[in-house]
Structure formats: structure tokens, C-alpha cells
Amino acid sequence: MSEQGRNNLRAMKLKTNRSAIKRFKFSGKGKVMRRPTKQNHFNAKDNGHESRAKSGTMELAKNNLKDIKNLMPYQTTV
């Protein structure tokens, strides 16, 4: 292969999974944050403690970090 042909070969860019971008956020320290489960509907029957527990975000489990890194290759993680 000629020198000019070698210069034209580049690694392909990886695509970011758009649904993962919408579901997961990165904290300032690089933690992956997600929404708690079971907060879409049937929430009127919950007492105050259950409602507060569903609000906000929580950290993603460590064993799922590798999968998220593959879905979002250009995001900043620890």
C-alpha cells in the first residue's frame, strides 16, 4: 500500500446510543446517575416516604458501568 493510501485509513467513529444519553447522566466526579425505578404511574397510592424515595437520582451499580461506557464512548467517566 502506498504512503498516501495509509494516511487515508482512519479508525471509524463510534456512535453514541441516544437512549442511553437520555437515561443516564454523569455527576461532576464521574459517577453515572440514573432515575429510581417504579416512578412512572400508580404513584397516587404511595405514602410520603415512598414518594420521596422515588424522587431524585441514584448512582448506577458498579457492575453496569462497562455496558454504559460501551453505549456512550465519548462521555467522561472515572
Automatic annotation (TrEMBL):
Q: Which PROSITE patterns match?
A: RIBOSOMAL_L35
Enumerate the UniProt keywords alphabetically.
Ribonucleoprotein, Ribosomal protein
Q: Which GO terms describe its cellular component?
A: large ribosomal subunit
One BP term from GO: translation
* Basic and acidic residues composition-biased segments: 43-53
Q: Give one Pfam family.
A: Ribosomal_L35p
Q: Which GO terms describe its molecular function?
A: structural constituent of ribosome
Q: Where is the composition biased (Basic residues)?
A: 29-38
Claim: Ribonucleoprotein is one of the keywords in the record: yes
Region annotation Disordered: where it falls in the sequence? 29-54
HAMAP family annotated for this entry?
A: Ribosomal_bL35
Family affiliation? Belongs to the bacterial ribosomal protein bL35 family.
What is this protein's record name?
Answer: Large ribosomal subunit protein bL35
Source species of the chain: Candidatus Yanofskybacteria bacterium RIFCSPLOWO2_01_FULL_49_25
Name of the gene encoding the protein in the UniProt record: rpmI
